[in-house]
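Technical annex B. To support the medicinal chemistry partners, we prepared a structural model of the target in complex with glutamine, based solely on the information shown next.
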Amino acid sequence: MARVGVLALQGDVREHAAMLEHLGAEVVRVRRPEEFAAVDGLVIPGGESSVIDKLTRMFGLAEPIRAAIRGGMPVFGTCAGLIMLADRLADAIEGQQTFGGLDVTVRRNAFGRQVDSFEGPVAVPALGDEPVHAAFIRGPVVEAVGPDARVLASLEDGTVVAVEQGNLLGMSFHPEISRETRFHERFLRRVGERR
Ligand code: GLN
């Protein structure tokens, strides 16, 4: 059975843990480096990226997570988690850092006030014909995609909302709250392949 971590310092940890357990994974809530050392993959939940950044540095997790990403660990980030995986931020708050790994530029809170939270179907061809029911909650958008990253989903106006690069997977929305299991299954497959 895959042993996967959910970064549990801030954000919607419970929803990710419930989905992963539902899919048969053993879940470790990661708050300390020792806990991180015992997992084969990591989910970075939605929440507030600047807080996740500060807390992971404070708890000594930022460097081990960066090293694991470089080493090929499967990591899956939703919303604030996508922000944490971006190599570049368009509008970081002062001093804000990311783990990086995805060759993209991400802009936080990018949908504008009226539409900053909405739900709807989004086509994700890599997951099959059935569109994903996506929930956006003050989500970021992927503003630029470098040559190493691959777009998994964009909205009708072309806004990129999901990307993949090797073992890294990131999206602007929250499959963990909309009963959409296919991204988590994809992540767990990667974890299984690597073990
Ligand atoms: N706006 C948040 C941030 O900047 C992300 C929102 C979310 O994760 N739902 O981190």
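Notes passed to the chemistry partners:
Residues 136 and 173 are 5 Å apart (CA to CA).
Residues 46-49, 79-80, 83, 108-109, 137-139 surround glutamine (CB under 6 Å).
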